[in-house]
Design a protein that fits this description.
Strand order of the largest sheet of chain B: 4-5-6-7-12
CATH superfamily of one domain in chain B: Rieske [2Fe-2S] iron-sulphur domain
Helix content of chain A: 55-70%
Bound molecules: protoporphyrin IX containing FE, FE2/S2 (inorganic) cluster
Number of helices of chain A: 18
Order of helices and strands of chain A: HHEHEEHHHHHHEHHEEHHHHEEHHH
CATH architecture of one domain in chain B: 3-layer Sandwich
Number of strands of chain B: 14
Largest interface: A-B, 121 and 100 residues
Shape of chain B: extended
Strand content of chain B: 15-25%
Helix content of chain B: 25-40%
Number of helices of chain B: 8
Structural class of chain B: alpha+beta
Radius of gyration of chain B: 37 Å
Oligomer: heterodimer
Largest sheet of chain A: 2 strands, antiparallel
Structural class of chain A: mainly alpha
Number of strands of chain A: 8
Distance between the termini of chain B: 62 Å
Distance between the termini of chain A: 60 Å
Chain lengths: ~525, ~325
Amino acid sequence: MSARERVAGQVANYVDERTGSAKWLKKTLTKVFPDHWSFMLGEIVLYSFIILLLSGTFLTFWFDPSMREVEYEGSYEPLSGLKMSAAYASTLHISFDVRGGLLMRQIHHWAALIFMAAMVAHLMRVFFTGAFRKPREFNWIIGVGLLTLGIVEGFLGYSLPDDLLSGTGIRIAEAIIQALPVVGSYLAYFIFGGAFPGEMFIQRIYVVHILLIPGIFLALITAHLMLVWYQKHTQYPGPGRTEKNVVGYPLMPVYMAKAGGFFFIVFGVTAFLGAFASINPLWLYGPYTPGQISAGSQPDWYMGWLDGLVRMAPPLETYWFGYTISWNILIPGLIIPGIIFTGMALYPFIESWMTGDKREHHLLDRPRNAPNRTALGAMSITFMLVALINGGNDLIATHFDLSINQIMWFTRIGIIVLPPLVFVITKRICLSLQRADRELVLHGRETGRLVMLPHGEFIEVHEPLSPQRAYLLTQHEQLPALEPVAADANGVRNPKGAKAKIQARLSRANQEQIAKPTPKEVLEIEDHH
Amino acid sequence: MSNEIAPLTDPGLPEHIHRKADVDPRAAKRAERQVGILFLLSVFGTLLFIYAYVGIDESIFIFLPIMGTTNAHQLFLGLGLAMSLFFIGMAAVHWAKTLMPDHEVIDHRKEQRSKDEDRSAFVATVKERAGEAGLGRRPFIKRTMGLALGLVGLSPILLLRDLGPLPENELNETNWKAGTRLVTDPGDRPLKPSDLEVGGVAQVQPEFPPGKERHLDDIAKDSVLLIRIRPEEFNLDPERLSWTYEGIIAFSKICSHMGCAVALYEQTTKHLLCPCHQSTFDVTRAAKVIFGPAARALPQLAITVDSEGYIVAKAPFNEAVGPSFWERDSK
Ligand code: HEM
Ligand code: FES
């Protein structure tokens, strides 16, 4: 036994005698993690959250969350002597008079963008592969919660420095609150401590930004990861991979080294962006005042789609019985996002109701083998993209020499027409990919080599697939559609008749598939050759 | 529910293919060296960081292609930090990929649900213990408990009451009164009609008595845009026309949509544009909305001149300025 092994043994012994966890720890260290690039998306989310905690804590050492008016005396000359809030002045101080301060600010902001982007990419991976299916519905819901909180957290962070741009964002948030029926103006007065902008808002959202939401994040992320751990990771289908096993690398040492190393890589890349790519140069915007605005006001991208929806809303406001309701704010600002996020959270249950499939799933779907789901995803992405494009309509207009009017009408019509169109196209593409898979299995790969038959005809040589590949292309299940049960054997009408009919209809749409080759068909073809 | 079509037989995990470093000691040695070099690059990054922190003055700017003029101190701090972190990561990953065992292992998975007997035992326990509490048999306790639990949540909500004052009538009010002079923002100078040429725009605030300070809350409501066009270009009803003075017309600068500053005035078209969501208002028709999500015209401030010839408000705004709210009188 080497000295090192002896030390390791002593440590293990020490820990076990105090916790009795030897068995659990041994299982843990040899726990198996499947390997795939798309499984790293969630890791990026986790790592950028840690980066946000570290860089954010650094910023708190100097940031002064106060709207008290001060005169700027720092080293950024153009703003010298200007009246501004202490929050803005301290952000300038961090940027110009704290060594590494600007770097940390930019790392913090870049990490926030990466955090949100990775979260969205991770969500798409989970959605398109069906990883949210039983037993992982809770984790899907936690994920939707994290996404929602992330948007709020990012918006609050963006609002903290109290520059002209962020103040404009707060103004818009205030207008949304104020537009709420019945309670709006009261709520706005409570949150802002009086009339907008008041003197309380920044110190209030500061606590929410650095304590409340990060705390909730920490709890939710912990629960999320514990569930992943406990339920074991899903895996992509393939030879040797079944619903009853997990194939991959053990936690110690390979996975630990890779995941740990990956944290440093993400941090390194974020630091590189912080060093080389300027972000939110808020000294150029000046302090916030409600009487001014900087042209081309843009929120961060994860808010951009909301802004785009607000921009394209029709100018609808009603005045009924002496009360005003701003539909132009409520519909794009609250109702549509509410529907989207609720629908997203409930999707696992909706899908299992549509398919009637209540079983556990640990093998992922190839997106083409779930055409309906894939089409639905593509449709939602299209909706978001059209909204996002409209969120940048002023920038696009100046860049591409279009009028804002043209873009607005394009997106107003596009947001209704394009998503269903994309749904249909995506579904067709999935089905043709299934057909291509079927052809591949039955007839092999085209080699491009031509041979001449004795009677002079040319044919292309097809190379049969390897058994591994053929298995991959045929391992998925194709469930039959549900039958509507209109009446039972005694002719009594099903009390859930209408609901069952809808369910059967949706199930039929969901189960639309190109029949995969049966073993018998494959055998016949093989004999034929 | 069964699978309609039987699957092909599973050929099982593909055979393990050895990496170079597994079979060739020289390749393994090379991989080891590479990992070491990556770690050394990280060390170099940390040294660069330290050097930049103490050795590069914050006033030095250098020119870089694409990025333009950049602060050297900040740039090398960032570069050093990025390298020191990135290469630790690269080293660890390279190490794992070339030298650590790459045999895939198989773990078994059992169904998530507990065994049936465990479940029924659990359900039975819950029922039994809940029964011991006897809620079902004591409806009085059940109801009073529901009442108490329902009400206890009120206290923390009530505690939040002092977060802010009640809005009262404030959202309908501004500092504009009949006779208030319009003063420039910035500058606080009163204006005469002759100060504004045709085609000109000025941002103004109500004049405050000496000693009264202007807060952001005031600016958020009082900001007004003064625009001068040729009087014959107006397309107004007689009442609104009487609110103008020699071609000068005044609107609230706070957008009727969500309260941004309506800052862009296009002289040729006489349109006011809000940069937030591009609502566009026609100045000649009392700031009627001609494009975008805003549902209401910008409130117009009636103006005239006082005995000394300065522009003053003829009356307060006749409607609430800024974004809508539930109680707003929008007749
Ligand atoms: C988890 C998600 C988080 C997100 C998405 C986020 C996002 C942001 C953003 C976009 C800004 C504006 C930065 C700028 O351009 O100046 C910001 C500012 C700030 N954040 Fe965060 N943040 C997060 C977590 C944290 C945490 C955990 C802390 C502290 C413990 C923190 C402390 C701060 C401080 C002090 C500022 C204002 C200082 C400044 O802007 O320079 N943040 N945040
Ligand atoms: S705030 Fe002016 S258009 Fe929305």
